[in-house]
Amino acid sequence: MQCEPADKVSYGGSYMEEMNWWEKKRKSSRVNEILYMAPEILLMRGLWKENKRLWQMSFPLHLGLYLMLATFLLLSISAVFTLCGFAEDGVLMIVNGLSVATGWMGLLAGVIGSTGMLYKRLSDRELRDYATFADYFNIVFILFFFLCAFIAALAVDPLFDASRAYILGLFSAGRAAPAYVPGQSLIGALT
Question: Is the dihedral of CA 50, 55, 56, 57 positive or negative?
Fold first, then answer.
């Protein structure tokens, strides 16, 4: 993001070179800041430019985290809509469907990304030389989270009904939470 005037950018100058710079009003734009930061944060643009091979595993990991946050947001919206009395076959059905889709995409991206990042850290000599115990611990911890959530969702709650009921119970302090009876699980279907 270019924050300096074009004439100063050409030689690496700054607005602080001007006399009494603190008395002059600086031009700034929140919109430009957001337009610069959003791709940097969400798409990891800097890593893409500098190290595409690392980006290939780091992006799915971060995408999984973003999608899990979106899933929580959608589950929360579903709880609010349920408490407001929205019909099950209207907008609530769309929100619930989106929460299932984002949940599964987030879990898959998270497992793939964290497994890939762990493999990359262990196999790439440059990364291995600079990695600390904390780096490995963080990646293994995130991988453990995604694997546990993936296995639990696959085995017990593929449509996130229990998660939806839990969030509804949080929003209603337990008063509106239905007694959750798990549906047919994958393990139950195979036995």
Answer: positive
At residue 4 the predicted structure's pLDDT band, cuts being 50, 70 and 90, is low
| CA nearest to 67, candidates 16, 34, 112 | 112
- Sign of the torsion formed by the C-alpha atoms of 47, 50, 55 and 58: negative
- Total-model pTM: 0.79
Averaged pLDDT, 23-31 = 82
What DSSP element (H or E) covers 154?
helix 133-155
**Quick count: other Cβ atoms within 10 Å of Cβ 40?**
13
Task: Count CB atoms within 10 A of the CB of residue 38.
Answer: 11
Q: CA-CA-CA-CA torsion for 14, 18, 23, 27, nearest 10 degrees?
A: -40
Q: 135-154 as b/e, with b when 16 or more CB fall inside 10 Å?
A: eeeebeebbebbeebbeebe
